[in-house]
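Notes from the 1:1 (GR / supervisor)

We went over the backlog. Supervisor wanted to see one worked example end to end before approving the batch request, so GR pasted a single chain during the call. The sequence is below; no edits were made to it. Supervisor asked that the structure be written out right there so they could see what the output format looks like.
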Amino acid sequence: MAKSGKGPKGKKITFNIAKNCVKITFDGRKRLDLSKMGITTFPKCILRLSDIDELDLSRNLIKKIPDSISKFQNLRWLDLHSNYIDKLPESIGQMTSLLYLNVSNNRLTTSGLPVELNQLKNIRTVNLGLNHLDSVPTTLGALKELHEIGLHDNLLSSVPTSIARLPKLKKLNTKRNPFPKEMDTDTFMDTIKRLDNLFLVEAKDLCGPCLKKCQQAREKLNKIKNVALTTPKRAIVSNLISPNSTAKVSQED
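Structure output shown during the call:
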């Protein structure tokens, strides 16, 4: 019988248990799913399965990720969300095959994010939401392949311009952060669509020529929208016979 005042011990994961939890995904990847198993410490026995492609340790009670996790050199997908992790190991930068990293809903602070994250040159998705980040590491701006970044439900007052300039970024979730009033959720849009009303930085942070170019692009798009709303449908259909040069120029902008 457990002593009064002490919680239950975490489930012990043996090599055989882990091996039986390896499944083949629909696209032929080896996935080790140990989610929702009440694990309190990182099971070192799974390092013997270092050839897996995906690892799911989400929704457990894990507090620390060891440096030895870098032994998963083939890992493309790592899900650690909903644990009690307050720091990521520096060795995570050696996992250069990673495409997806989810560490949301943990206890991560900005100091708990190692500089070595900038070595994940192939990564596409990083979810850091529901943590205790008071600033975003500028090192994320070096990850040119990033498509999605989750920064929601943190303690952020700003987002580095290096993040906004990532060339392949399609989605940036910054909801429910204590941004100043002049930088509210209307300023930091969740989905990046390169539209006329997208601003990831304040106007004052843009250089004169860049701000002017953005304003001109917005005016062009507004004119196109107005024409589309006022022109009869029959006229629009007839115009589709030849490319609309005005629309083409605005699309390039």
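Supervisor's comment: The chain has five helices and eight strands.
Batch request approved.
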